[in-house]
Amino acid sequence: MDAPLVNRVANSGLITLNLEDHYPTQEVAVFDLKDHLFKGLILKEKDFRAALKEHEWTQYQDKILLVHCTADAIIPVWAYMLVISYAQPYVSDSYQGDLDQYLRHYYESFIVTQDYSQYEGDKVIIKGCSQKPVPPAAYMALTAALKPYAQSVMYGEPCSTVPVFRRPRVLK
Q: Of the candidates 30, 62, 68, 166, which lies 20 to 30 Å from 79 by C-alpha distance?
């Protein structure tokens, strides 16, 4: 006799959380200050102000703007302030740093705003192998947030997980 196929993963009570589901959906744009350095070394205030006035700021409409400098130069704090003063009416969000730094900030900010008490006593899998660049810091922050509540935390896919944390069983 052929026994019916049983989906043991679906019946296991495992809860899968996918950080990739919360990846920013808005387009990211970069404003690199190196393009405004004199001889690739210094930022001249007068020239910089003139360049900012001429810059096409509408290209950042509804985008996340990352402001940083890829050149090895000392950038005064006021330069970042000037950039955002021009960009702010157009951008949906801004951050001083590169994409990796922004994503760390973004995920950590998202993770701390969630209520994890709903996972009290649950077996949780944090899905791995994402197609988007979810930073390792996000996985760390999510694990730390789940640990006070979840019975266990695993990494990977329901068919192949790596145990990360398991709460000791309390004997009565």
A: 62
Determine the Cα–Cα distance for residues 64 and 61; give it in Å rounded to an integer. 9
Could you tell me how far CA 140 lies from the centroid of its own chain?
12
Query: Per-residue confidence at 150, pLDDT binned at 50, 70, 90?
Result: very high
Q: List, for residues 85-129, the tens digit of each pLDDT value.
A: 999 999 999 999 999 999 999 999 999 999 999 999 999 999 988
- Cα separation, 110 vs 124, in Å, equals 18
Asked if 156 contacts 123 with a C-beta cutoff of 8 angstroms, the reply is: no
Beta bridge partners of 17: 126
**Structure tokens given for 123:** 């077996």
Q: Write out the two tokens for 31.
A: 């404003």
Q: Where exactly are the structural domains of the chain?
A: 14-24+102-166, 28-91
